[in-house]
């Protein structure tokens, strides 16, 4: 054994291996274990100058013995049953005061259950959301922690050290009890889905509506990345648009089947939003669009019957597309933060909205220059919907007409822009003081005598049609 480890890690898949190297590099000796022993030894063998910081272990008992008590062990195993199995296997080997940290993409309900079990049976348990992919895990992810505050504080020095930094501030923070960290990570992923989908929609308008080639799309996205849309997702979308396929010599994008995969975190976010009656239509549309993308045969059948949309018929400008994307992005983040707010109230978790925006400024997939302004707006008033914060309200006043133009033009030309259009419908609903639910209430009262509230405050809850219902 090299030296007593400060922390342990189980699961040397891509993310686990990168996280372990990151921890070692920040000066924390780490003991590692993987189900396949050869992977563990191979990991140490390839760790180069970091190898002396790494203790490979062959059994879970060896792993536990290699760590200085009170111990902390990070799990980087697939979400679901594997996490429960690993906890069960570790429990008899660890002390009650030790700590297990699940750093996978767990469903937050599972994290709630595991935290409750840990409180009864030990060891302590933290659920942390980690974002940033392979590169982030190796050089600085964003980290969203959930569990007991004291447990977070215990490992915060390691987590802060390995996290991405925004102007020196670690993008890691405590989000609240039990599953709060994994809940915030799920909302992060929901926003990620919506942001990706809106970029894909704008790409669709450029490709089909404006007849632009991939390299022209790449140039446009590159120029947007120097303005208010500056973000990791716009940056990589520009890069993928510019890439050339080595097999065909054609733009890589043109060679990729339009059928997208998903691991389920976006879907979880949407399901939870429905439970909370939170309104996140841009995120819902993005999940819908992914589901629909996989129905390739049906889409082909649809095109055979109804014909393909005409190409090159759009009258939009690139400036309008950029403005529409700005409006759409603000609306999708506003929906995500409103969902966290609703969950805070419902679960009794005081999840810190400004800190969440701060943690998302670097390291994670949805990092963007707008998040710093969001952190400021949420600090001013965490209870106000983000779209009403003066800075973003001004942006929306300036960009909403472009969003309308893009949605209308796309509709006229048969180009699907579900996230942008549902974002716009949400915006219009949110800015309409007198909507049309009076009609819904009248219908409900007619067929079911459900009653309604009157605008003049009179107590009569039923219409003159009383008794006419079924
Ligand atoms: C991140 C990502 C990461 C991953 C998800 C999404 O924050 O680093 O969100 O967690 O990309 O698994 O994957 P799907 O698109 O497959 O749902």
Structural account:
The structure is a single chain. The chain has three domains: 7-178, 3-Layer(aba) Sandwich (Rossmann fold); 186-430, Orthogonal Bundle (N-(1-d-carboxylethyl)-l-norvaline Dehydrogenase, domain 2); 442-467, no CATH class. The protein is built from 19 helices and ten strands. The protein has helices at 14-25, 37-45, 60-66, 81-90, 108-121, 133-139, 149-162, 180-209, 214-224, 232-242, 265-275, 281-293, 296-306, 318-347, 353-359, 370-380, 390-412, 418-430, 437-448; strands at 7-10, 30-33, 54-56, 72-75, 99-102, 124-131, 142-147, 165-166, 169-170, 172-176. The structure holds 6-phosphogluconic acid (6PG). 6-phosphogluconic acid (6PG) is lined by residues 105, 131-133, 189, 192, 261-263, 265-266, 364-365.
- How much strand? 5-15%
CATH class of the largest domain: Mainly Alpha
Strands in their spatial order, largest beta sheet: 3-2-1-4-5-6-7-10
Shape-level CATH architecture of the largest domain: Orthogonal Bundle
Radius of gyration: 25 Å
Quaternary structure of the protein: single chain
Structural class: alpha/beta
Task: Give start-end ranges of low-pLDDT stretches.
Answer: none
- Distance between the amino and carboxyl termini: 79 Å
Number of domains: 3
CATH fold title of the largest domain: N-(1-d-carboxylethyl)-l-norvaline Dehydrogenase, domain 2
Global morphology:
globular
The main pleated sheet reads as: 8 strands, mixed
Order of helices and strands: EHEHEHEHEHEHEHEEEHHHHHHHHHHHH
How many DSSP helices? 19
């Amino acid at each position: 054994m090299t030296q007593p480890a400060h922390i342990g890690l189980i699961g040397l898949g891509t993310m686990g291996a990168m996280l372990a190297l990151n921890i070692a590099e920040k000066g924390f000796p780490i003991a590692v274990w993987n189900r396949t022993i050869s992977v563990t030894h191979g990991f140490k063998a390839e760790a180069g100058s970091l190898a002396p910081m790494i203790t490979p272990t062959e059994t879970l008992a060896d792993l536990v013995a290699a760590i200085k008590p009170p111990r902390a062990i990070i799990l980087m195993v697939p979400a679901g049953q594997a996490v429960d199995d690993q906890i069960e296997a570790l429990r008899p080997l660890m002390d009650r005061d030790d700590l297990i940290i699940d750093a996978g993409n767990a469903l937050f309900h599972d994290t709630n259950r595991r935290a409750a079990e840990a409180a009864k049976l030990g060891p302590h348990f933290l659920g942390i959301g980690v974002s940033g992919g392979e590169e982030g895990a190796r050089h600085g992810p964003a980290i969203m922690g959930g569990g007991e505050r004291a447990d977070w504080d215990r490992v915060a020095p390691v987590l802060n050290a390995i996290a991405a930094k925004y102007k020196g501030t670690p993008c890691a923070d405590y989000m609240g009890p039990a599953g709060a960290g994994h809940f915030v990570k799920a909302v992060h992923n929901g926003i990620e889905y919506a942001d990706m989908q809106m970029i894909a929609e704008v790409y669709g308008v450029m490709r089909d509506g404006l007849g632009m080639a991939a390299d022209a799309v790449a140039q446009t996205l590159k120029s947007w990345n120097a303005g208010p849309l500056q973000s990791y997702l716009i940056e990589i979308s520009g890069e993928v648009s510019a890439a050339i396929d080595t097999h065909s010599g054609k733009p890589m994008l043109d060679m990729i089947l339009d059928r997208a995969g998903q691991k389920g975190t976006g879907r979880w976010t949407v399901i939870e939003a429905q439970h909370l009656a939170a309104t996140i239509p841009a995120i819902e549309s993005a999940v819908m669009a992914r589901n629909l993308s996989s129905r390739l045969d049906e889409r082909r059948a649809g095109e055979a019957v109804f014909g393909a949309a005409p190409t090159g018929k759009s009258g939009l400008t690139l400036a309008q597309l950029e403005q529409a994307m700005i409006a759409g992005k603000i609306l999708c983040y506003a929906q995500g933060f409103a969902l966290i707010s609703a969950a805070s109230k419902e679960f009794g978790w005081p999840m810190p909205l400004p800190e969440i925006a701060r943690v998302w400024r670097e390291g994670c997939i949805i990092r963007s220059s707008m998040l710093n302004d969001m952190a400021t707006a949420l600090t001013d008033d965490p209870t106000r919907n983000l779209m009403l914060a003066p800075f973003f309200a001004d942006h929306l006043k300036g960009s909403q007409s472009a969003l309308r133009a893009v949605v209308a033009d796309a509709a006229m030309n048969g180009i699907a822009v579900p996230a942008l259009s549902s974002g716009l419908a949400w915006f219009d609903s949110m800015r309409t003081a007198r909507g049309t639910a009076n009609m819904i209430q009248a219908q409900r009262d007619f067929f079911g005598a459900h009653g309604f509230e009157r605008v003049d405050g009179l107590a009569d809850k039923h219409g003159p049609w009383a008794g006419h219902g079924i």
